[in-house]
Amino acid sequence: MTVTYHFSLPGITCGACVNSVDGLFAGEKERLKFVSWGVDLATKKGFVTVLQEEENEQTQRELLALLEAYDITDISAELNPDLSQPGVLPGNKKSHAFSPATLAPEQKIPTPLPFYQRVLKSHWFLGAVGTVCGIALMIACLVTGGLPLAIMIALGVTSVVLTLLLGASSYYQAWIKLVKVRTLTMDTLFAISTLTIIGVSIASFFVPWLPMMFEAGLLIFGFRHIGLAIEESIKDKLGLDRTYQSDLPQDVQVLKEGIEESRELALIEVDEIIIIQPGGIIPLDGICLSDDNWIDDNIISGAIIPRRLKKGEHLLSGMRLPLNASPLVLQVKAVKSESYLARLDRGIAEAYMEKAPIEEMATRILQYFIPAVIGFALLSGLIIACFFPPALAIQCAVTVLVSACPCTLGLVVPLALMIGNRKAADHGVQFKSGKALQAAASVDAVVLDLNGTLTLGEPKITRTGLLDESINTSDLFSLSAALERHSPHAFARAICDEAHEKYGGKLQQSLASDVDDSYHTGLKGTIADTEYLIGNQELMAQEGVECPPDLLQKISLQAGDSLVFLASKKKLLGYFVITDPLRPDAKQTIDALKAAGKTLFINTGASLETARRYAERLGIPDENIHAGCVGGEKKAEFIRTLKAKKYHVAMVGDGGNDGLPLACSDVGFAVQSRSGHAMASQNAGAIIQQGSLLPIAHGLAIARQAVSNIKQNLGFSLAYNMAAVILTGGLLVALGITLNPAVGVALMIVQTLLILGNAYRFKCQQSDAVPKEEDKADFGPCSYTQCQSGLPWKPANAPDPDISLQTESLPLMDENQRDLLVEEHGQVVFSGLH
């Protein structure tokens, strides 16, 4: 059993801070039994998973002490169940926030600051003070040509005090990180540069040839705070703090003893009854107590329109009532912190905190970046001092320190991974880690399981036939149901369900004995002293049962059809044609992956003939079919074969036998469905919500965009930093140009803004997974987070419709709404209404 502790780290300021936190956790891994951990610079949040049976206040105190240098706050614990135990599904977690009484005094939940205090502490205000005062002091010195000593001393004292106040946070963070965790950060560069300026400026009162640069310290921190304010504004536009729970209402209506009362959502407890009004979002997981209603479960299934809701059905937070539905009465089964949306938010947060290989590369660069900048500043100062006045050498060295920007190197990768994970989640795929997302970007081969993945996994009997005069249709169903009664196979369930639906109590209750289920393609058993065999053509041939050569041609199987025979005494008695239909968007997904240049394979335990019929419908060549893979090991062997041929493989599956091949692939996509298995989700690198396959194409496209954005920003950041350091470190001086240190800060700010601007471009970039001509049908919002209107808009991750309904058939809309839809968007096409 493990417990995951989530926390905030307001004290981290750059990638070097993140590296030092990683080092602290690695150093204490054995003593505190850390399993995994991650820290995100963009949101300044982190997590650590500890091997223990329950949340422990002692562990909390250890974390407080370990991360004291980073002002750790808001610790909460989340109990992770053992997924190896039967009946335990991924996401069934229990969370607990430590009460203020258990926190250290400085960690207690802060009360909101008054407005004037928020203004005084804002980066905009501090930046304005530093910039205005610095410019004013610079103008005063330039215009007057020199001020009386008393006034200069007064201005010097004032500027020193203001510089120390504006940089108090940087000085504190630089000192505490140097002393407690022995690391150099961005704050170290600012502290060294501004303290050097202050020291040189004070010394200039006694050594005339030294430069007086009091205004430089003010401008450095002024520009620094303005840069931070702009960075925060851009991050707000990027929506880094937005979660799925952001759309939930603050208060809900609680039904208690027949009386409705409003209560805060966070205070709702298990088994309480709440009421959701039409158009509202289901805020908590629970059981539906209403009869004959409708629900929009787009966030779970990607369904295009609302579906009918049954009393007693389990609902998840994030589902939504259509505008024209009836009020819904819900019995709560999970509090806010344990709801589906809470687990989804935590999963996404942990995903982009886990380092991808490209982020580890950036981390290695950062380890040497700051020491290199300090070394280069000293070297440039010494070289320039040999040819130019010492005052110019000091000014250049300080400018080098503040022009370099290690924070962008540390921000580039987690920022892009976070945006990529959010975009992928909006399109129906949740990457478990940055490593999985990066692996998805290089995928060139996609291997798909057949039953339950490409198909719906809900086979139905479409035709039956008799091949012997000794039995009738009732006997065919009775004998087959008796053999298949205890089989877990989907075809067995289809036969038994059809038998009971057709004949019910009239069905002859035959009992089978000596049932041999060791065959993968069928089984054998004895009924009334007669041995029967049921299975596919391969099993019949294996057992010596002859099949008429023209029989298959007469039956004329179509794509998705499978043939199951019943035989006895080496003679065929009858057959069932069982169809497991393709998912509605399977063909569109295959076409989109082909258009993206992916090579497609089918890897299935079904027979070769069955796989060929599906492949023909999907446009996958016969040579790319790997059929008859009984068990996960054979499927995994096929994955290893493809990887040995230098393919970068993505495996898509849903069953228990897909767990091993999903783990063996470069990145695995687990399709959640009714027939899906928990081990598939556990071993996959990404989860696809049920109802659609198109998120796979979107996920691969978004991953490619994310890695491209990372490479662009990393390359630009390195080039920009090198150019800035070289220019300020002596090249401009050689050309007769000198820069005030404040200009170095301006260069750093420009770099940060360009990096964030490119990240914002990526956020707004559309997924190119679906060709333009196919995408024209998407007339509504493309994600769950956008789909908050009352009308059932078609999301981008929903399948292309194949059933056209007249407007009179649309549910939950009055005549005006239907006419409005038709007027604005032409013929309204929906799929899956009934």
From TrEMBL:
<dbReference type="InterPro" id="IPR027256">
    <property type="entry name" value="P-typ_ATPase_IB"/>
</dbReference>
<feature type="transmembrane region" description="Helical">
    <location>
        <begin position="743"/>
        <end position="762"/>
    </location>
</feature>
<dbReference type="Pfam" id="PF00702">
    <property type="entry name" value="Hydrolase"/>
</dbReference>
<dbReference type="InterPro" id="IPR008250">
    <property type="entry name" value="ATPase_P-typ_transduc_dom_A_sf"/>
</dbReference>
<dbReference type="GO" id="GO:0005886">
    <property type="term" value="C:plasma membrane"/>
</dbReference>
<dbReference type="GO" id="GO:0005507">
    <property type="term" value="F:copper ion binding"/>
</dbReference>
<comment type="similarity">
    <text>Belongs to the cation transport ATPase (P-type) (TC 3.A.3) family. Type IB subfamily.</text>
</comment>
<keyword id="KW-0472">Membrane</keyword>
<protein>
    <submittedName>
        <fullName>Cation transporting ATPase PacS</fullName>
    </submittedName>
</protein>
<dbReference type="GO" id="GO:0055070">
    <property type="term" value="P:copper ion homeostasis"/>
</dbReference>
<keyword id="KW-0479">Metal-binding</keyword>
<dbReference type="InterPro" id="IPR023298">
    <property type="entry name" value="ATPase_P-typ_TM_dom_sf"/>
</dbReference>
<dbReference type="Pfam" id="PF00122">
    <property type="entry name" value="E1-E2_ATPase"/>
</dbReference>
<dbReference type="InterPro" id="IPR059000">
    <property type="entry name" value="ATPase_P-type_domA"/>
</dbReference>
<keyword id="KW-0812">Transmembrane</keyword>
<dbReference type="GO" id="GO:0016887">
    <property type="term" value="F:ATP hydrolysis activity"/>
</dbReference>
<keyword id="KW-0547">Nucleotide-binding</keyword>
<keyword id="KW-1278">Translocase</keyword>
<feature type="transmembrane region" description="Helical">
    <location>
        <begin position="365"/>
        <end position="385"/>
    </location>
</feature>
<dbReference type="InterPro" id="IPR001757">
    <property type="entry name" value="P_typ_ATPase"/>
</dbReference>
<dbReference type="InterPro" id="IPR023214">
    <property type="entry name" value="HAD_sf"/>
</dbReference>
<keyword id="KW-1003">Cell membrane</keyword>
<feature type="transmembrane region" description="Helical">
    <location>
        <begin position="124"/>
        <end position="145"/>
    </location>
</feature>
<keyword id="KW-0067">ATP-binding</keyword>
<keyword id="KW-1133">Transmembrane helix</keyword>
<dbReference type="InterPro" id="IPR023299">
    <property type="entry name" value="ATPase_P-typ_cyto_dom_N"/>
</dbReference>
<dbReference type="InterPro" id="IPR036412">
    <property type="entry name" value="HAD-like_sf"/>
</dbReference>
<feature type="domain" description="P-type ATPase A">
    <location>
        <begin position="248"/>
        <end position="344"/>
    </location>
</feature>
<feature type="transmembrane region" description="Helical">
    <location>
        <begin position="391"/>
        <end position="417"/>
    </location>
</feature>
<dbReference type="GO" id="GO:0043682">
    <property type="term" value="F:P-type divalent copper transporter activity"/>
</dbReference>
<feature type="transmembrane region" description="Helical">
    <location>
        <begin position="184"/>
        <end position="206"/>
    </location>
</feature>
<feature type="transmembrane region" description="Helical">
    <location>
        <begin position="151"/>
        <end position="172"/>
    </location>
</feature>
<feature type="transmembrane region" description="Helical">
    <location>
        <begin position="718"/>
        <end position="737"/>
    </location>
</feature>
<dbReference type="GO" id="GO:0012505">
    <property type="term" value="C:endomembrane system"/>
</dbReference>
<dbReference type="GO" id="GO:0005524">
    <property type="term" value="F:ATP binding"/>
</dbReference>
